Amino acid sequence: MCETCTAAPAGASVPVVIVGAGPVGVTAALLLARRGVRSIVLERHRDVYPLPRALVVDDEVRRILQAAGVGEAFAAMARTGNGLRLLDARHRVMAEFRRSKQGPHGYPQTSMFEQPALERLLRDSLARYPECELRSGAEVTGIGPDTGGPVCVTYRDDDGEHQLWAEAVLGCDGANSLTRQAIGAAWEDLRFEERWTVIDVRTTADVRCWEGVDQVCDPDRPATFMRVGEDRYRWEFRLRDGQQPVRELVAPWLPPSYDGDFEVVREREYTFRARTADRWRSGRVFLLGDAAHLMPPFIGQGLCSGLRDAYNLAWKLARVLRQGGDERLLDTYESERKPHARHVIRLAVLMGWAMTGGQDGAAALRRRLLAVACRIPGLTEAAGRDLSPALTAGPLVGRHTRRGSRLVGTHCPQPWVDADGRRARLDEVLGDSFAVLTAADPSPSLNALVQGLGVRAVPVAALNDDGTLAAWLRRGRADAVLVRPDRVVMDVVPAGGRGFSGAAAWAPVLCTARGPVEETASAPLSGSAAR
Fold this sequence. Notes:
Radius of gyration: 24 Å
Shape: globular
Mean pLDDT: 87
């Protein structure tokens, strides 16, 4: 709690304060800025952490980076990965989970990168938005005690103590989150904790790899291996007594008796845990990323989950702050994201179990059963399809019992389309707001609803894509879909139907009290004026 905050706002006011300038915090700031919401990002470190950490994102997250305005720049630094393989103790392939080079979101389903490069890219982009300000060397010391808004944030820098008053605070401050403590949230332990060593290496050796991720399912020495860059590789090994030297650990991947260049960029021990916060929000204070959930890295979804948090929350918060949207919009952040985070954590724990088979007397039997299961036709393909299951019914996800329900809560695909005589990705055409995609001419009632929401109705035939959207609507037995700003299908018009059957539930939540708010000059973002 912040004991130094005054009873009434005495410092500068800003719509949003973001605690932490990692990839999640800066992406949240970019997504808000593109919707006209100003923010100040407070980061206690002076610069980007220089060593690699997160390495993998999926095609859904590539789409989020596109929405944040850095999609093309990220493409220039990313490498396409083949997916995931399970190897036995002798490095024989047990199963392959192939990932497509063109996923439904319009990008490779696995992309490899180095986190410091991504963070610099995000910060460079942030500097181009006048709506954002990054304050480095600013350590947050208190939040609250009132979290209902405006929320007092106290921080310390070289010039002393300062206060900011924010309409919302986003806690993107990692596993040891001060924000989580401030709202009184506690960890829920999902029962996985192991100590591993992570080794990043630079070498020009002919390292044996398949341009994807290898998981070695060896109870004595489980390991993860992947190529990151042209000459960069990562190995992860579970720790045990009598740890071997690095060269001995990685020898199975190197040419025999290799004695050439081999630079250990980083060797560090980590404790991999599976946890989620019991609450992700208190009033106008929210938890995102590692502040809200921790997961083992075995399926590469730690950073991905944090960026999904930012995408889910940003458009809702912008609608509330800029247009007087219903506060119930903000309630849907935790109710939509927490179940998905728990789902992904369970998958990561399951993969950890697959790598070892457990440590009890039945472990050997379970490993044999796993090897048999991996040979079942279609099983590995089904297991590797999509890490984002459909959202369950809620205020922003229609509830259906009739035809067309299979699309509700899923993501709209993103093909290339025609836009003003040029080829563009679908989201570039739809913009940052809601959209209605139609397979047929909209009915008068649908036109009225579209006008009432202030959204665009786009006939898919006019987009001149490769047929992806029309086929998607046919499979879903839908004449039209209402797509949210985060590209989740909120409701459908079933084939032959007249309108969105779930509108009575979601329309009141989307109602806004005013049009876009013009920012005043009373809350400047310049460093000196805002202190």
